[in-house]
Amino acid sequence: MPLRSGGGGISRREFMMSAAAGVAVLGLGMAGLSGCDSQTGGAATVALPYLPYKESALEPYISKKTIEFHYGKHHKAYVDKTVELIKGTHLAGLSLKDIVQKTSGFADKASTFNNAAQAWNHDFYWKSLTPGGGGKPEGELAKRLDADFGSHENLVKELTAGATGQFGSGWAWLVVEEDKLKVVSTSNADTPIIHGQVPLLTIDVWEHAYYLDYQNKRADYVKNVIEHLLNWKFAASNLPAA
Ligand code: FE2
Questions:
Q1: How far from the centroid of its chain's Cα atoms is residue 185's Cα?
Q2: CA 95 to CA 33: how far, in whole Å?
Q3: The pLDDT value given to residue 45
C-alpha cells in the first residue's frame, strides 16, 4: 500500500488512529479496511484509504492545497460520517460498496448512502488520477474504446461534455454497461455501482475538486485532468472481460 508523504493533510499517525478508531467502533481486525473494492471472505470495515501518491504529485494541474482539503477534509469527513452512521447497525462490518448498494433507494438511509457513496466515489477518483497520466490508453481498453466511441478524440469529446455539462455537483464516469463502454454523469453522491454499471474511471466535478485552483473555470480543470492526469492503467484494470 503506497504511503502518503509530504506535509499537510493527514499524517500516517493520524490515519492509523482514525483507522484504529473505526476498527474499535466495529470490533474488527485491521485486515479488512474498505476502500472502493468489495471485501470478501471476512469482516470488512470502513476507513480513509491511503492517497496513492503525494499530495503535491498532481501539480501543476491540481495543487497540493486542493488535495489537502479535498482528501484530508472532504473525503475524510465522508468516511468519518459513514463510520458514525453505521455504528451498531446491520451495516457495520460490510464493505463500503455493500453499504452503498444496500442503502440506495431507502429514504431513511439517505444520509448513510450519501456519505458512503461519496467515500467510495472519492477513493475511486484518487485512483483514476496519476502523475504523468493522460494521453491515450493502450491494449484491449484502447480497442474497446475505439469500437464504442469511434476514436480517442470522440471519447475525449464525450468525457469533456459529461464533466463540463453536469449541472451542479457530481461526477463524470467512463463505465461499461451491458458490454458497451459509455460516458455517464451522476449528481451529488450518485454512483454507477447502483445502476448496474461497471465504472472504469471518474472525474470529480464538485466545486471543491477545482475551485481553489481554477475558480469557476471547470472546463480548464477537466481539460487538464483528461490531458495530463487520467490513469488509463487503472481504467484497464477495471475492464470486465468481453
Ligand atoms: Fe470531491
A1: 14
A2: 8
A3: 84
Rounded distance from Cα 147 to ligand 1 centre (Å): 31
Are 185 and 166 a contacting pair, CB within 8 Å? yes
Query: How confident is the model over 91-101, as pLDDT tens digits?
Result: 999 999 999 99
Shortest CA distance to 92 belongs to which of 44, 32, 47? 44
Whether the Cβ atoms of residue 119 and residue 78 lie closer than 8 Å to each other: yes
pLDDT tens digits, 215-232: 999 999 999 999 999 999
pLDDT at 106 (0 to 100): 97
pLDDT tens profile 44-72: 689 999 999 999 999 999 999 999 999 99
Report the distance separating Cα 34 and Cα 20, nearest Å: 13
Alpha carbons 217 and 110: distance in angstroms, whole number: 31
Cell of 70: 479535498
Residue found under cell 481498453:
141
The alpha carbon of 107 and the centre of ligand 1 are apart by a number of angstroms equal to: 23
Written as nine digits, the cell of 149 is 466511441
How many Cβ atoms are within 10 Å of 142's Cβ, its own excluded?
15
Could you tell me which of 37, 44, 121 has the C-alpha nearest to residue 83? 44
Below-50 pLDDT ranges, the chain = 1-33, 38-42
Ligand 1 centroid from CA 210, angstroms = 9
CA distances from 67 to 36, 92, 130, 157, 198 (A): 19, 29, 13, 26, 26
pLDDT at residue number 36: 55
Tell me the CA–centroid distance for residue 208 and ligand 1, in Å. Answer: 6
